[in-house]
Design brief:
Elements: H1 3-31, E1 35-37, H2 42-62, H3 69-93, E2 101-103, H4 121-135, H5 140-164
Antiparallel strand pairs: 1-2
Helix pairs in contact: 1-2, 2-5, 3-4, 4-5
């Protein structure tokens, strides 16, 4: 098993941890009268992220993509930075962080951590990761296809989130 395969599997394991955190946080926010928005696009998001991980494993093998150090090492650094940003977002939002859009009425907005600088820092991490992870091993087709698909999905997702929050960035 190659180190790249281990990297993709590590990202997949991180996603499983995220889903466990999200499930726990969803129960907590829903118990506090939280309202979920955007259920229709959530399954598309799951398929997109699962497909990305699968294609990251398949394209280098099936298309004989080499590891190019000049591309791969900088992309690996971006993947690691994206993970750090994602977990900064998760820890900053605490129980309000979720993979779903759930808003607790009357909750205050978070303006700490990365939310001091960006309106949607978690999505910055997602964009960077979706572009960089396949490019670690020259899977340029996966990078292009999933980056474009993610751009379409994030357009829907961010509109949904902004509407749910009344145009505010993040509730907490």
């Amino acid at each position: 098993m190659s180190w790249y395969t281990l990297l993709v599997l590590a990202v997949a394991a991180e996603r499983v941890v995220e889903l466990a955190v999200a499930r726990r946080n969803a129960a907590w926010t829903l118990a506090r009268s939280g309202v979920e928005y955007g259920r229709g696009h959530y399954p598309v998001m799951v398929v997109l992220h699962t497909g990305l991980l699968a294609c990251c494993l398949l394209e280098p093998v099936l298309a004989h993509r080499p590891f190019l150090p000049a591309l791969g090492w900088p992309m690996l650094a971006l993947v690691l930075l994206a993970q750090a940003l994602r977990w900064w977002c998760i820890t900053t939002l605490g129980r309000y962080w979720n993979t779903r859009v759930i808003v607790v009425p009357g909750a205050r907005l978070v303006d700490a951590g990365p939310y001091r600088f960006l309106r949607h820092p978690n999505y910055v991490a997602v964009v960077v990761e979706i572009t960089a992870l396949p490019l670690v091993h020259s899977a340029w087709l996966s990078a292009v296809v999933f980056t474009v698909a993610n751009a379409v999905l994030l357009t829907v997702r961010i509109r949904c989130e902004n509407a749910a929050l009344g145009g505010r960035a993040v509730a907490a």
